[in-house]
Amino acid sequence: MTELDGSADLWESIARLHAWLDAHRTHEGAEGLLLRVLKLSEEVGEVAQAVIGATGQNPRKGTTHRWEDVQAELCDVVITALVALRTLTPDAREVFTAHLTRVTRRSLGSPAP
């Protein structure tokens, strides 16, 4: 496994991306945090653009994307959200895991004994 092949632990990769973004940021403090969270809106917009392009819903442009493009954009949303969560707390893994557990239990119920 190389450090760039994507097979590293998810949270290790998120920590590395977070550190890289912090090293290259142009805005500090609350403004930097808000901009990092707002990046999610941009990424979600790219998902919408890809879906519209994959379904050919813009008659002027026609079919401009594939469903694989939608998958990639959804991955970008997830990565951006996890980096934003890491920006809010160094305990992002624990916060996410606890929240996922609550959502899963709420939606699916407790697992059978």
Automatic annotation (TrEMBL):
It comes from the Bacteria. InterPro entries: AF0060_NTP-PPase_MazG-like (IPR044548). SUPFAM superfamilies: all-alpha NTP pyrophosphatases. This is MazG-like family protein.
